[in-house]
């Protein structure tokens, strides 16, 4: 598959948001998929189980701050931290550790911070926090745009022999983002969210809420590296993973207030990566063909699963099928859970109110946490591996 030129602004109708395009793309991908299905019985069973869990232990946006590496303050510095993290939030899977194969775990890229080693996405958060503790203003636009290769290499330094993946790509996208902030937003993503008033004073963080889908569209227009689209069966398909998770992280961190106040937040979709699809297969909301399972594990239909792995090219049919079907599966799970909530409310005479609040963001967060916390239990499901700056 040929991926469109992401350096050019994406054309869209003013009446249709990127989130609409993502949902339409997911439906289209599912309708043309060969190796993935979304079993309705699996959706209903998973929805019931998730609903029961959420009734026992509510899962809300406040969970975001329960992660020890996430900021605990609601200020402009936190906005810029989130923007830097989501600009660099891609491609953390290891070249050395291959699921199903002994050895290699000790060589996976890891960041040592405050006496603990972090891997994957949390390694990035640890690296940024470590740099800030060491006095490096890495979340500022000037630093992002001008820090040299050696400085960034030191920020990303690993506790193991494996270095951070796609280092050169990370330098390109972070410098690009810094230049855009300096040129258009007075050096801070806060000014993207709350433009300065006409009299030159900065708009307060308590300004009117931003519209979530419109903010995603603005991110896509302003920052080329966020334009996550591909080509599938002769048409452009949309994913917008990092643009959407940027808005979602702000919403969750600021608890829908101040810089993180958004209308139409439920219009966002899940954030198509490589961990959430694994969790969806585990709970029965996605079903991979035997061919795809063998491909992802490095085997064949004849040899079965092998202790190796297969790297899927960006824009390959299998990669697009996985991402698109994951988005649609989460949409259907959300709808099924909302139906259960409505049924319970109706049965109780409407007096109980909503028992569970669910949207694609929260369900994505929950499934991602599940996949990370139960890595060993989910190891029987191979994750797809694609080197790309989109996720």
UniProtKB/TrEMBL annotation:
Under catalytic activity, the entry for this protein gives: queuosine 5'-phosphate + H2O = queuine + D-ribose 5-phosphate
The name this protein goes by in its record? Queuosine 5'-phosphate N-glycosylase/hydrolase
Q: Pfam families in the record, alphabetically?
A: Q_salvage
Molecular function GO terms recorded? hydrolase activity
Picking any one GO biological process from the record gives: tRNA modification
Keywords, A to Z, come to: Hydrolase
Give the protein's function.
Catalyzes the hydrolysis of queuosine 5'-phosphate, releasing the nucleobase queuine (q). Is required for salvage of queuine from exogenous queuosine (Q) that is imported and then converted to queuosine 5'-phosphate intracellularly.
What is stated as this protein's family in its record?
Answer: Belongs to the QNG1 protein family.
Keyword GTP-binding attributed = no
Q: What class of enzyme is it?
A: hydrolase
Query: Lineage of the source organism?
Result: Eukaryota, Fungi, Fungi incertae sedis, Zoopagomycota, Kickxellomycotina
UniProt xrefs under PANTHER family: QUEUOSINE 5'-PHOSPHATE N-GLYCOSYLASE_HYDROLASE, QUEUOSINE 5'-PHOSPHATE N-GLYCOSYLASE_HYDROLASE-RELATED
Give the enzyme's EC designation: 3.2.2.-
């Amino acid at each position: 598959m040929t991926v469109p030129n992401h350096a050019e602004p994406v054309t869209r109708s003013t009446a249709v948001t990127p989130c609409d395009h993502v949902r339409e793309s997911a439906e289209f991908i599912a309708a043309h998929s060969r190796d993935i299905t979304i079993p309705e019985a699996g959706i209903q069973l998973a929805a019931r189980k998730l609903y029961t869990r959420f009734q026992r232990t509510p899962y809300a946006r406040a969970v975001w701050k329960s992660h020890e590496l996430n900021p605990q303050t609601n200020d402009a510095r936190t906005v810029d931290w989130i923007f830097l993290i989501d600009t660099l939030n891609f491609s953390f899977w290891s070249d050395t550790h291959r699921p199903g194969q002994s050895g290699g775990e000790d060589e996976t890229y890891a960041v040592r911070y405050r006496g603990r080693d972090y891997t994957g996405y949390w390694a990035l958060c640890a690296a940024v926090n470590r740099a800030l503790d060491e006095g490096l203003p890495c979340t500022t636009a000037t630093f992002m745009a001008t820090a040299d290769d050696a400085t960034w290499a030191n920020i990303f330094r690993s506790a193991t022999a494996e270095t951070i993946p796609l280092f050169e790509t990370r330098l390109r996208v972070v410098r690009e983002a810094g230049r855009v902030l300096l040129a258009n937003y007075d050096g801070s993503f806060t000014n993207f969210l709350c433009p300065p008033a006409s009299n030159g004073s900065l708009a307060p963080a308590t300004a009117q809420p931003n519209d979530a889908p419109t903010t995603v569209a603005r991110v896509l227009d302003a920052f080329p590296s966020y334009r996550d689209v591909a080509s599938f069966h002769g048409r452009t398909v949309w994913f917008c993973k990092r643009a959407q998770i940027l808005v979602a992280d702000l919403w969750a961190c600021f608890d829908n207030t101040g810089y993180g106040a958004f209308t139409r937040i439920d219009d966002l979709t899940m954030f198509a990566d490589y961990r959430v699809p694994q969790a969806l297969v585990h709970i029965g909301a996605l079903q991979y063909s035997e061919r795809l399972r063998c491909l992802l594990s490095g085997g064949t239909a004849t040899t079965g699963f092998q202790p190796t792995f297969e790297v899927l090219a960006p824009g390959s049919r299998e990669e697009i099928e996985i991402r698109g079907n994951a988005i649609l599966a989460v949409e259907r799970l959300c709808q099924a859970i909302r139906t259960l909530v409505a049924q319970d409310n109706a049965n109780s005479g409407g007096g109980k109110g909503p028992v569970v609040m669910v949207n694609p963001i929260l369900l994505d967060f929950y499934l991602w946490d599940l996949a990370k916390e139960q890595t060993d239990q989910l190891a029987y499901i191979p994750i797809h591996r694609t080197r790309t700056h989109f996720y």
